[in-house]
């Protein structure tokens, strides 16, 4: 895989070992604008990698360093997600600018990069997450159009359960306890449910806990969180 070096000055020292990969969309009109921001000392943000729509992969920050991509976030007990993660920005203008589909060339470039990072650091599929998973009150990227199934079938991310689903008929508070056990910050319950739906049931994102949501979450928790 060819990496194009585009160094960013925005990084620091890690305080935790790498145990997560966070996927983002850039949310800006062009990839060049996003790269300029992440590589500007005034930008205050960065990521380890950025993948253009045509499949070019830029490395901005060395993986040994802590890039500034997650912001205030939480996943499975970790609050300093930047220290524990590798951040990958995927060029897409996002919901504010029309939110187009992710090009095949872009996902084809993401897959080997993701596999390499995941394997080198021994990262579980359950810790390959969306920005919206770790910051449900603030973020919705990479969004409901992101092709998680393409990653899941290569065992690079958790699949959305579809077989032998069984509704456990939890109360809403029971569902929230289970969602917290799975890894989400449930301080804002509706935001947490929306984030779960965006990731695992993108066909209907309404913040309402229903039987399908309960059944999918139960399947994800069994036999244990990953």
Describe the structure.
The protein has 226 residues and is α/β, with parallel strands linked by helices. Helices cover 32% and strands 13% of the residues. The chain is built from 8 helices and 8 strands. The strands form 2 sheets. The chain has a 6-stranded mixed β-sheet. It has a two-stranded antiparallel sheet with strand order 2-6. A hairpin with a 5-residue loop joins β4 (49-51) and β5 (57-59). α6 runs parallel beside α8 (211-221). The longest helix is centred in the middle third of the chain and has 18 residues, at 104-121. The mean pLDDT is 97.
The neighbouring-strand order within the major sheet is 1-5-4-7-3-8
What's the total count of β strands?
Answer: 8
Structural class: alpha/beta
What is the overall number of helices?
Answer: 8
- Radius of gyration equals 17 Å
Q: Overall 3D geometry?
A: globular
The SSE string, one letter per element, is EEEHEEEHEHEHHHHH
Main sheet: strands, sense, barrel: 6 strands, mixed
Q: Strand-residue fraction?
A: 5-15%
Low-confidence regions: none
Q: How far from one another are the termini?
A: 28 Å
Give the averaged pLDDT, no decimals. Answer: 97
Helix content: 25-40%
Give a topology summary:
Blueprint: E1 3-5, E2 11-13, E3 20-25, H1 31-38, E4 49-51, E5 57-59, E6 65-67, H2 81-84, E7 85-90, H3 104-121, E8 128-130, H4 131-134, H5 148-152, H6 172-182, H7 189-200, H8 211-221
Parallel strand pairs: 1-5, 3-7, 3-8, 4-7
Antiparallel strand pairs: 2-6, 4-5
């Amino acid at each position: 895989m060819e990496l194009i070096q585009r160094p960013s000055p925005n990084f620091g020292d890690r305080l935790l070992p790498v145990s997560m990969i966070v996927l983002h969309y850039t949310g800006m009109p062009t990839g060049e604008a996003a790269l300029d921001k992440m590589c500007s000392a005034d930008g205050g943000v960065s990521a380890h990698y950025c993948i253009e729509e045509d499949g070019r992969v830029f490395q901005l920050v060395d993986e040994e360093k802590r890039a500034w991509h997650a912001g205030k976030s939480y996943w499975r007990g970790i609050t300093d997600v930047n220290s524990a993660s590798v951040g990958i920005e995927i060029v897409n203008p996002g919901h504010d600018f029309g939110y187009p589909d992710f090009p095949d060339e872009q996902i084809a470039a993401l897959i080997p990069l993701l596999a390499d990072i995941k394997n080198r650091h021994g990262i579980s599929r359950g810790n390959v997450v969306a920005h919206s998973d770790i910051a449900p009150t603030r973020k919705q990227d990479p969004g409901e159009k992101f092709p998680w199934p393409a990653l899941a079938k290569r065992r690079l991310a958790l699949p959305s359960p579809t077989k032998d689903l069984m509704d456990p008929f939890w109360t809403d508070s029971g569902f929230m306890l289970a969602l917290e056990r799975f890894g989400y910050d449930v301080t804002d319950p509706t935001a947490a449910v929306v984030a779960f739906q965006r990731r695992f049931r993108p066909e209907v994102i309404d913040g309402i806990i229903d039987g399908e949501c309960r059944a999918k979450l139960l399947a994800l928790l069994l036999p244990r969180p990953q």
